[in-house]
């Protein structure tokens, strides 16, 4: 019994010691996933929209509507890529919704 406690203590000690590295990796992974999502979403939709009735605009909003349940993801995305910047981009090209 004491032997298994000692083994588990060593394992958890290593996990706790590596926690900072794990947190950093998770943070980097989250940032990479947000960037990938943005590249996949924005390049074929927002950047190519030519008018307010363009179906790509509907696809953009539909994608975000599907993500609304993922509050942490939406919060992270909004911090990295403010939604209002996308709207300003559309408005600056004369696309009104």
Task: Map the helices and strands.
Layout: H1 2-42, H2 55-67, H3 71-80, H4 83-92
Helix pairs in contact: 1-3
Q: Report the span from N to C terminus.
A: 68 Å
Structural class comes to mainly alpha
Q: Show unreliable segments.
A: none
Number of helices: 4
How many whole angstroms does the radius of gyration measure? 21 Å
Secondary-structure element order, as H and E?
HHHH
Rounded average pLDDT: 83
How would a textbook summarize the main sheet? none
Coarse shape: rod-shaped
Number of strands: 0
Percent in strands: under 5%
Helix content: over 70%
Explained architecture:
The chain is mainly α and 97 residues long. Helix content is 76%, strand content 0%. It has four helices and no strands. It has helices spanning 2-42, 55-67, 71-80, 83-92. The longest helix has 41 residues, at 2-42. It is rod-shaped. The model has no long low-confidence stretch (mean pLDDT 83).
Quick synopsis:
The protein is mainly alpha-helical and 97 residues long. It is built from four helices and no strands.
List keywords for this structure.
4 helices, rod-shaped, mainly alpha, single chain
């Amino acid at each position: 019994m004491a032997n298994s406690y000692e083994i588990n203590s060593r394992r958890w000690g290593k996990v706790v010691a590596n926690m900072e590295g794990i947190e950093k990796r998770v943070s980097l992974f989250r940032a990479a996933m947000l960037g990938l999502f943005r590249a996949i979403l924005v390049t074929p939709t927002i950047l190519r929209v030519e008018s307010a009735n363009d179906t790509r605009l509907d696809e953009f909003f539909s994608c975000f509507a599907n993500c609304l349940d993922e509050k942490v993801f939406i919060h992270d995305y909004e911090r990295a890529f403010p939604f209002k910047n996308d709207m300003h981009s559309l408005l600056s090209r004369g696309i009104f919704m």
